[in-house]
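Hi support team,

I submitted a single chain yesterday and got back a structure, but I'm not sure I'm reading the token output correctly. Could someone confirm the output below corresponds to the sequence I sent? I've pasted both exactly as they appear in my results page.

Thanks,
R.
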Amino acid sequence: MPIIFLIFIIVPVIEMYLLIKVGAVIGGLYTIGLVLLTALIGVSLLKKQGLSTFMTAQQKMQTGQMPITEIAEGLMLAVAGALLLTPGFVTDTVGFILLTPVLRQHIAKQVFQSWMKNAKQANFTSSTHFYTNQEAFRQNYSEGNDKSDVIEGEFQELPDEKIEKK
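Hi R., thanks for writing in. Yes, this is the structure output for that exact sequence:
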């Protein structure tokens, strides 16, 4: 089973369980208020962190650097915002973790390194495929090779009146 499918099944069940347990201890209205409070705090923090990340990315671009870490951070901030707006304590916890600058920057660097590793592997695979095909081309189409599918010939362009119309 794909892990994302499991997450979409397990996380809501855990969220419902925790909301029911917390509601039994502090009351339903207080639980709803707590969920709304975490959403409001999260959105205000998200706004500040998003603006800060945007400004850093803009400064890097002005100096001619690629803001790759900031792009990863921006994606994580978008995920954090979605998690903070989702009712529940587990999603709020993960959202607040992604809003913590030190943790987010560490995670962003890990994501960037993973992207670079995957890009290098994809580049190696595609370049290996290219060179393999190039070598096959040389073997099949080198001079004196009788296996070639090339047909040599001459052609003559005919005026429009000589072309038979169907």
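A quick pointer for reading it: The radius of gyration is 30 Å. Let us know if anything else looks off.

Best,
Support desk
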